[in-house]
Prior knowledge:
Blueprint: H1 5-10, H2 13-58, H3 63-77, H4 84-103, H5 114-119
Amino acid sequence: MGDFPWTEFVMSPGFGGLAAVVAATIAYVGVHKTVKSRQAADRKAQWWDRARWALDLTLHDDSEHREVGYSVLEALGQSEYAAEHETDLIDAALDRTLDAYAAQGEAEEPGSTPEAEAQWTPENDDGADS
């Protein structure tokens, strides 16, 4: 073994210990990434469960339930777990929901009443909503 001085180190207990530390570090990094990925997937699944619940509320016959659904969807849209595609899907679903209610003559925006809608005219709009 005199020709290659590194072969003595490779055969030493010190190298065995170093190799064990390197292997443990690699394993830790792999497990850590897997756990983080799983947590993100779980949070995204919970986000979608809440979004589905809120979307169902927007289809409810009662306007108060619909208002809660719209409010929850607004909050979910601002969540850190809502990517661009999720907010696009929710916007599309809400547009369809609102279009369906408008077609039935029952369109109501959250916080408004049919009486207020009927009384609104451009002349009496003070611009406070904008």
